[in-house]
């Protein structure tokens, strides 16, 4: 595996996180608390692995150089570039906000403060899921859509 393979790995990790989040949601809706806990802690680990891989790619492999959509896809129509920008900005802002939110939500559950956990998880889950899914969309738009 080379540094150029990391965006694909990152997309796979984001996909895995989304699947685990959805599985965890359905597990808790079915009152399978142990399965829910396993899925959510696994999603946390997968998301942490994504973050490490993402940061390594951008700082060690790319040496801090950003990836520009129009450089990767010069033949893309302007509206696609604008759509990409909207998705990327919302993804990035929510990704930054989601980290403390996720950690707080999981901390409440691990401490047994389930009332507070449920109240904050109603916000955390959709944000975390959005970040995971849009991470895959960003990858697809950058590396697959016009390649």
How is this fold's topology laid out?
Layout: H1 6-29, H2 33-61, H3 69-72, H4 78-110, H5 114-143
Helix pairs in contact: 1-2, 1-5, 4-5
What average pLDDT do the residues reach? 96
Enumerate how many helices there are, as a single number: 5
Strand content: under 5%
Low-confidence stretches are none
Largest sheet: none
Quickly count the domains.
1
SS-based structural class? Answer: mainly alpha
Radius of gyration, in angstroms, nearest whole number: 17 Å
Q: Which descriptor suits the 3D outline?
A: elongated
Tell me the span between the first and last alpha carbons. Answer: 20 Å
Q: Give the helix level as a range of percent.
A: over 70%
Walkthrough of the structure:
The chain is elongated and about 50 Å long. It has 147 residues and is mainly alpha-helical. It has helices spanning 6-29, 33-61, 69-72, 78-110, 114-143. α1 runs antiparallel to α2, α1 (6-29) packs antiparallel against α5 and α4 (78-110) runs antiparallel to α5 (114-143). The longest helix has 33 residues, at 78-110. It has one domain. Helices cover 82% and strands 0% of the residues. The two termini are 20 Å apart.
What's the gist of this structure?
With 147 residues, the chain is mainly α. It is built from 5 helices and no strands.
Keywords for this structure?
mainly alpha, 82% helix
